[in-house]
Amino acid sequence: MSSLTMNSNNPVLTMDKINNNLVKMEYAVRGPIPTRAVELIEELKNGAEKPFDEVIRANIGDCHMMGETPITFIRQVLSASLFPKTALADPKLPNDVKERIQLLLSSCGGQSVGAYSDSAGVEIIRRHVAEYIEQRDGCPSDWRNIILTSGASEGVKLMFTLINSASTDNIQTGVMVPIPQYPLYSATCSELGMYLISYYLDEENEWALDIAELQRALDESKSKCKPKAIVVINPGNPTGAVLTKENIAQIIRFARDNNLLIIADEVYQHNIWKEGAQFYSFKKIMKEIDIRLELVSLMSASKGYMGECGLRGGYMEIDNFEPDVKAVLFKQISARLCSALIGQFAIDCVVRPPQQGEPSYELHQKEKETVLASLKGRAELTTRTLNSLPGVRSNPVAGAMYAFPRIQIPNKAVEEAEKLGQKPDFFYCKQLLEETGICLVPGSGFGQIPGTYHFRTTILPQPELFSRMMNKLQKFHLKFLEQYK
Amino acid sequence: MSSLTMNSNNPVLTMDKINNNLVKMEYAVRGPIPTRAVELIEELKNGAEKPFDEVIRANIGDCHMMGETPITFIRQVLSASLFPKTALADPKLPNDVKERIQLLLSSCGGQSVGAYSDSAGVEIIRRHVAEYIEQRDGCPSDWRNIILTSGASEGVKLMFTLINSASTDNIQTGVMVPIPQYPLYSATCSELGMYLISYYLDEENEWALDIAELQRALDESKSKCKPKAIVVINPGNPTGAVLTKENIAQIIRFARDNNLLIIADEVYQHNIWKEGAQFYSFKKIMKEIDIRLELVSLMSASKGYMGECGLRGGYMEIDNFEPDVKAVLFKQISARLCSALIGQFAIDCVVRPPQQGEPSYELHQKEKETVLASLKGRAELTTRTLNSLPGVRSNPVAGAMYAFPRIQIPNKAVEEAEKLGQKPDFFYCKQLLEETGICLVPGSGFGQIPGTYHFRTTILPQPELFSRMMNKLQKFHLKFLEQYK
């Protein structure tokens, strides 16, 4: 290890000497296809000849990147909170914006967004989150159970880290994760050396959770790990599914019967498109069926109608935790000091939008409804277009911001992919990108039943661009089928 | 594990079933004393009778909380970036602010701070960071080695996670950390199950690093862990020391001879107070003595003259990493998507302040110099006051924002503390808090040579309050000595 003759050509960090969990980790949403898309943008900018003149990035749930307009009230509050003196003197700034920043800043150290907050976040914002949940679900929420996070991703990592007991019992801690899944979950499992218990969502049944399948996955895992939690993403990423009340109740009973913590990723709770679909929180249904389990619910300012990904604001609510365990969680978050105050303020605006009678109310309602109506239109167009393609079948985009259609890939294309050492769905998406500039993520990045192929597309490109994309995708798909038939 | 008879009274998460690394972890900066201080503030607010009428929070490096005024240019840029249309039309907003937000936003997805950036941060900001380093050190910096982080804390955690190879080799990965240290390092070691190799700073020599002591610590650790890195905090937290060029060169040679990665926490690089002291980056000295090692340098928007803790902006530069290891690091950061854009923009303002001739230049210079001069005055006052107290000896506060004086605690007080199950320095700080409202952190939270006692105080309360605090501390200290003599 150490020797006086060692010199600077002897690196400390080599692939065999670093964290192998990270070496093995995969994260497809920012994998080789999106990376290639960024290169193509650069190449186009430098005048390269391509069969397309624009790259369409439908690979990531990034609303603003795809042209969504920020919500005025949110931006006014955030902008003003950074320069309150000028803002408060500005006659054009609505009074409810001024009142909001006064209220929030009075709860900050030195009345500044430049001060650290408590590790769990600014108290008044945590209180507002709890009020929002109470109103949404009609059951009590304790603000001391709210932790403001740097987006939902941080919440997931905090929680996975907390439940990972491998260092004590030398057995991998298992977490049940849906397949297909948002790859944050598998990436976090990899990083922390935890065991991913994959359960397949039921594609034939609009991606619902099938309890027999949950039981199969859990039973099979028991020789390999100590199962401790189940992750449910509702509305679904990448599936676009919205769970029914009955399905949620089944899952809760399953968790109770199998002694599992429920981690409910509910970041798309504002994004409901399908007629008749409705968002039910796990908290609400738990209350309704009178079962009391440990529950974590994750929320974010990055999705919904606000789409403020770059601000990194989110919250998690923990329910029914043992007090000493909760104390450990609070100690855990203290070492990262706090999440970004501007992200915290954004969450405040989300959970406490302007109310009827307040000066910002009408504009806020209009902006919110416009965004949501437009997304709804694109969700419907996506479902329609995808199902019109031969060899493609998509469940309705009932919620969230994605479709995850199943595609039949001709044998010749599968063989061609294998020759190149590529997965067939990767091959399809790579061809699509190189020929049309459309960037999607191959289904293999999210997981799928072996032998089936999918891709994930967002519904986020703005309407005109989105129609263009759907047309291009259609043409490509038909050409691809023809080429490899 | 699972049974149909289990019910909701059977918690999944109990102290013996969660991550024991977190159970064991300590984080003193937000430990019981600061927690008690917050309670006292509340009690005072509710009219409780106390021997003081204000709580003085000198426990945390939170400039804005302690009344420091934000820098206008930074706040103008950030505020405007959230509402660019209005800002660009505002005749009162300086042109260089407008140019800056146009430049930065043009590098953001959808020209919005609401879009995700690349995982490593907005490209133009990374380029600006590299330019800043080049100018500071007079040696090249590659923008592709810059990662924008959510404060320096995130950088530390990312790097510790990367080098932690225990899952492969079943031996704890060791990191050399100074004692006294900023507890983020020990907390991160605990959380990740890494081995903390404590090396004592040389209090008799203005907290310099003594190479023989480094060697002792390293040699003793080798039977227990695989040493892989050395952390150096310069300027020092909690010591307030500034390392000499010669000392830095010695440390670099030590790291080379012992095959260690250097993690240089250089977040206080703008905070130099002592006549003759100067900040030298490890990068610069490495270049000067012509040694090429793997190096990580951490920087933050939270300290310096800006003190923007709540925005969570920071960067790390990695030097001389193997390309495949660097690729793993970049994959690692991709799963957390990106750091907060507002924090990234803050870093841009720090590394690229207004230049001579630009409209914001003069005000910016004035504000910066005012803050730094005021801090310098408080640094000097701190050194003077502390050394005037019997039984207290403090090295000069040469840099950073802290003093870490050694205090003689009378035997009777030590015995009294032991009776209460408290460490003597904790006992001292607790008494101080309850009697005067001054909140400091006991030395045991940072580590100290056994049998010696210290506390850490920040120099951040504004001048008038600071003088008041020094007076109160003086009185308390004399009374304490009298009481336990």
TrEMBL record, chains A, B:
Its cofactor is pyridoxal 5'-phosphate. The gene is GPT2_1. Coiled coil: none annotated. InterPro entries: ALAT1/2-like, Aminotransferase_I/II_large, PyrdxlP-dep_Trfase, PyrdxlP-dep_Trfase_major, PyrdxlP-dep_Trfase_small. Homodimer. Residues 109-459 form the Aminotransferase class I/classII large domain. Pathway: Amino-acid degradation; L-alanine degradation via transaminase pathway; pyruvate from L-alanine: step 1/1. It is an enzyme of class 2 (transferase). It catalyses: L-alanine + 2-oxoglutarate = pyruvate + L-glutamate. SUPFAM superfamilies: PLP-dependent transferases. This is alanine transaminase. Belongs to the class-I pyridoxal-phosphate-dependent aminotransferase family. Alanine aminotransferase subfamily. Pfam families: Aminotran_1_2. Transmembrane segments: none annotated. Its EC number is 2.6.1.2. Keywords: Aminotransferase, Pyridoxal phosphate, Transferase.
